[in-house]
Amino acid sequence: MRSVRKTFGESLVLREVDLEVAPHTVTALIGASGSGKSTLLRCANLLEEIDDGAIWLDGEEITDPRVDQDAVRRRIGVVFQAYNLFPHMSVLENITLAPRRVHGVPRAEAEQRGRELLERLGLGAKADAYPDRLSGGQQQRAAIVRALAVRPRLLLLDEITAALDPELVAEVLEVVRDLKEQGMTMVLATHEMAFARDIADQVCFLDAGVVLERGSAEQIFHAPREERTRRFLRRFTDSGRL
Questions:
Q1: What is the share, in percent, of the chain residues with pLDDT greater than 70?
Q2: Tell me: the pLDDT tens digits for 23-41?
Q3: Which of 21, 110, 187, 232 has its CA 20 to 30 A from that of 89?
Q4: Sheet of strand 11-17, all strands in order from the earlier edge strand to the far edge
Q5: Are strands 52-54 and 26-30 parallel, antiparallel or unpaired?
Q6: Which domains does the chain have, with CATH numbers?
Q7: Average pLDDT of the chain?
């Protein structure tokens, strides 16, 4: 991202945002609610149109008006805090829908990959179940499998533990940890500070739509330069969550 600007009406949500994500790395976006983390992810996937600046993916400017946005989105996986699984479809049907309908993958091939991914993420026995028969953690893992099924170049994760009971958070975060070990390029917005500290190669602190500070996890969490970053993180250290 270069000088990305986004407004909603009179509200300036992203202000001259610069962000670079290297392949096979994890970037964590941290900051208070309303700081612009989710909007940044939605702009990265072209779900929101930016007002100024430019975004590139693999050297291609994807915010160029001439670019096929649907083709771009096929290269990016997104997982939101709401699972958004189709309730009338089995887990496997949810996972194979995009590969078959959007990417033209034959049903047998899509189902084979879907079952392999479900097995890898501990959901092999749930392939033929419907979403309402799964726990929240299982539904979120299924949503991650659905995003992975299209073999994305980039995976965007937006507060994926926010809607989960505390005891289910760990199982979802373990999946993300496994994806990092497999080399998946990820950008995640999270309030799980300890997890961000442990998994991220790069941490960006957003404040009022600005990337106020960026650096390694070691630097941001142990030696933040900005007073605003220190105040934000102090809430987590004081509560014992970091």
A1: 100
A2: 999 999 999 999 999 999 9
A3: 187
A4: 11-17, 2-8, 52-54
A5: unpaired
A6: 1-75+153-242 (3.40.50.300), 85-152 (no CATH)
A7: 93
